[in-house]
Write a structure and sequence with these properties.
Layout (H helix, E strand, L loop, with lengths): L16 E7 L6 H10 L5 E8 L10 H18 L8 E2 L16 H16 L3 E5 L4 H9 L7 E6 L12 H4 L2 H9 L3 E5 L9 E3 H7 L4 H17 L4 E3 L3 H8 L4 E11 L5 E16 L1 H16 L8
Parallel strand pairs: 1-2, 1-4, 2-3, 4-5, 5-6, 6-10
Antiparallel strand pairs: 7-8, 9-10
Helix pairs in contact: 1-2, 1-9, 3-4, 4-6
């Protein structure tokens, strides 16, 4: 595959590209949308597997508990979508990194390394789309640093470089891991949360209307969305994580810019970028394009069309 690390362009002839989704799926309710979106796009994404990332918030008692709950949620979604036995799931780290030198071994790390090496043999890049704390990816790079040239890491994490407060969940949970990935030689794509992915707000009214004819997967997405907004006493909810998957599924929905690669301080703040190294960053996302694509694909899926091509 003639992937250009400088332009971050993927030739249409290269699709579907091999991808791993690394996700803290039980953390909120938006990872489920992202996983379903990846499953619905076989002409763009060859989803090799899904790895469970650790998280710690009110929905978990420890990072390891968060990872295990995420793993179970991944399996639930894969089964709900009819992909059981075709898309594997792997458990990831049970804690965050203690420093920038010591990896945490897991089956997710072994899987990422193995897939990266297989992609190299095929002459391809492996795309790792990370939508949580990036512990598993960092551990894979620490364990096998030679795979850096085989990876394109797409990460939803941090806010805009110019924003003073950069205390964003995916970033601050494991700053060491973020530093490792950003400082590595991987081709790096970042979607900022505030002012970029935050455009992907949705409401129970819209989802109730659009998912009503989307079978059991649509019913599940609507149910967990309603439970979330009722628990948090809100009306709308940002479906953050579809932004990262969309780099592969619907890149035209986003305005992208190649910029000097940012440096990350241990306090989660951005430092002056490294002008000698580049990265791709999302600037603006068209929410209607992404949500319409998901709704259309999910309707077709429950009617039995896309699965025949997988």
């Amino acid at each position: 595959m003639n992937f250009d690390d400088k332009s971050y362009m993927i030739p249409e002839s290269a699709f579907p590209v091999p991808m791993i989704l690394d996700t803290d799926t039980y953390n909120e309710i938006d990872d489920q949308f992202a996983l379903i979106y990846a499953l619905l796009t076989p002409e763009r994404v060859n989803l090799r597997g899904v790895t469970a990332a650790p998280f710690l918030n009110s929905r978990s008692t420890s990072p390891g508990d968060g990872m295990e709950k995420s793993y179970c949620e991944i399996v639930r979604i894969i089964e709900l979508m009819g992909f059981a036995g075709r898309v594997p799931a792997y458990r990831g780290a049970t804690s965050f990194l203690a420093d920038c030198k010591t990896p945490i071994h897991s089956e997710a790390v072994d899987f990422i390394i193995a897939e990266a090496k297989q992609a190299r043999v095929r002459g391809e890049k492996l795309f790792v789309v990370a939508i949580g704390a990036i512990t598993n990816v960092a551990s894979a790079l620490l364990t096998a640093p030679e795979i850096a040239s085989d990876l394109v890491v797409v990460w939803l994490g941090g806010h805009d470089y110019n924003q003073a407060d950069n205390r964003e969940f995916n970033l601050y949970e494991d700053v060491s891991s973020a530093q490792i990935v950003i400082d590595s030689e991987v081709a790096f794509v970042r979607i900022p949360c505030n002012h970029v992915a935050s455009a992907l707000t949705n409401s129970g009214e819209e989802l109730g209307r659009e998912l009503s004819d989307c079978g059991e997967p649509g019913k599940y997405l609507y149910t967990i969305f309603k439970e979330y907004v009722e628990e948090h006493k809100c009306v709308d909810k940002v479906i953050w994580d579809i932004s990262a998957v969309s780099y592969l599924t619907s890149p035209q929905a986003t305005e992208w810019e190649i910029v000097p690669r940012e440096k990350l301080q241990s306090d989660s703040s951005w430092d002056a970028p490294d002008t000698a190294r580049k990265m791709l960053i999302a600037r603006k996302i068209n929410r209607e394009t992404l949500f319409c694509d998901i709704y259309s694909r999910l309707r077709s899926h429950v009617k039995g069309y896309p699965t025949d091509r997988l």
